[in-house]
Amino acid sequence: MDNFDWIELWIEKASEDIRSAEVLLRETLHANSCYHAQQAGEKILKAYLSLCDGSAAWTHNVGTLCKDCMKFNGAFSAILDDASDLTDYATQTRYPGDESFSEQDAKGAIEKARLIFDFSLPRIRALAEKIAQSKEPPVGFGLNT
Fold first, then answer.
1. Quick count: other Cβ atoms within 10 Å of Cβ 100?
2. What is the C-alpha separation between 65 and 83, in angstroms, rounded?
3. Boundaries of every domain in the chain
4. Are 92 and 33 spatial neighbours (Cβ–Cβ below 8 Å)?
């Protein structure tokens, strides 16, 4: 599997997480919906980072991942606040006490995840095209990390 295939798997998983969040919202499973929205944001940013240098930090902190993306493309600063807002859903939603998450929380989390996904995807596609046309891939390109 080459790095382009690996990137497509990250994108597919991020898309699945958004769809999962939407289904869970309809089923009034708000905490789980928030969790999958967070996962979507995390995975699409990891797709971009994997394409940039063959790696992505092992973190659930979507804000940190966005800041890492900004090192390669400053335009990611436009979604930093939304990315940071999703971070807490990685852990707070998975344990007892998650009953406090509302429909509004889930809708907001999905909206932020979609915004991050829709912002990132064309940048991933453009960078992949640039790399495919280049004779010299970025350092680390091709690593499945």
1. 10
2. 8
3. 3-133
4. no
Would the pLDDT of 8 be above 50? yes
pLDDT of 131 strictly over 90: no
Alpha-carbon distance of 117 to 99, in angstroms, equals 27
The average confidence (pLDDT) of the chain is 89
The distance from CA 41 to its chain's CA centroid, rounded to whole angstroms, is 3
How far is residue 114's CA from residue 103's CA, in Å, rounded to a whole number? 16
Q: How confident is the model at residue 132 (pLDDT cuts 50, 70, 90)?
A: confident
CATH architecture label of 3-133: Up-down Bundle (1.20)
**Quick one: pLDDT band at residue 42, thresholds 50, 70, 90?**
very high
Contact 55, 78 (CB under 8 A): no
Measured CA to CA in angstroms, residue 142 lies from 10, 83, 121, 132, 145 at distances of 14, 26, 19, 12, 9
- Measured distance CA(115)–CA(68) in Å, rounded: 18
